[in-house]
Predict the structure.
Amino acid sequence: MTRETDSTASLTMMEMARQLFPLNRSMTGEGLRTTLAVLAQWLPVQVTEVPSGTNVFDWVVPEEWNVVEAWIKGPDGGKIVDFDVSNLHIVTNSSPVHTTLSLAELETHLHSLPEQPETVPYRRGNQDGTWGFCLSESVRSGLVDGDYEAYIDASITSGSLTYGEVFIPGTTDDEIMISAHICHPSLANDNVSGIVVAASLARRALESDRRRLGLRFIFAPATIGSIAWLHGNRETSELMHAGLTLACLGDGAALTYKKSFGGSNRIDRVASRVVESPGNEGSTIDFFPFGYDERQYNSPGFRLPVGSLMRSQHGTFPEYHTSDDDLSFISEPQLQGALVAVETIISQLQSDPMFRNLSPFGEPQLGKRGLYTSVQNAAQPEQVQYALLWMLAYSDGVHGIAEISNESGIDADTLLEAATILVGNGLLEPVE
């Protein structure tokens, strides 16, 4: 796929969202391809198709589901629900059907939310021969006895699972990964917001100078999409220096960073510091094994350093997986705030100088090198002498100057001065 730059360069994220929102996305099918085709107007997207029936670790790529038309007509012949009005009206993966049935029979195929009477839920099936419709409780409660005609023109056939990638190389082989799931239909926060933040970040990165770490953007259906990517990219996954999954970034809540497994990777320290900084006032939470594709990247066979950035956590806001998660629920300022936070995280990962201690077995003897004067009786040790010790203690190839400054309270310039002294004496080396 090729990129059209002139007519799309000035698009806001909300304008991007408006193009993506109506598309009927699922785990497989034309909705995914159309979504990636829209992204390809803005980005050089490389599309991969994984055929149905392919084994990807413990999973099998399912058949492809596509729907053309779906509706229910009431006793008076009028449509009660209509896929053309909202793609949430059909249960994803529903089998084709054309039948007439009583209200009692129809009720077994209906889904609504009694606690949110004007809201249509989002429901997904499992390609198991069943079918269903979603509607508001207010419409459902008004249904009268009589015959109802249910029609779903859909296909479940051998096809493929589709995902897209954008790769921007760096000066080294190591990479930063940004992943957004693209399998939900018309849900703006979950996850059109994650898609447009990732796409906007990629667009800006393409226009900037080449940096040390490559950037890999993955747009894939949740769970099986990332599993399929991991299955086909074992060697590439080993180059991951850090990563983020992006989801639910457009609502009114503050940012939340979910740590990678163990919580001790560099992405965890950098992202936590950015999210909790003044202006964001967000929060950091520990890893837990449900949520988005960070689960797959952090699974025991990979343990990639991938965290998750979101605003409201999935399942914690009433709009989640309902028709209320529409374009009015997200906003440009919130999307922009998320974009700036991700850019800041990546910038620190890219540019924060790191060093490696060349004499790591105990503290090296500084006195014989003329680098240490006795401070035992001094009221206030010299900052540079403190900085020497901090740099030696933290220069393990994974802690950067900004991180050491944050831990020590010593300004970055002083730490860099100490690092230069230690490099000149053969005790540190820069990490490229």
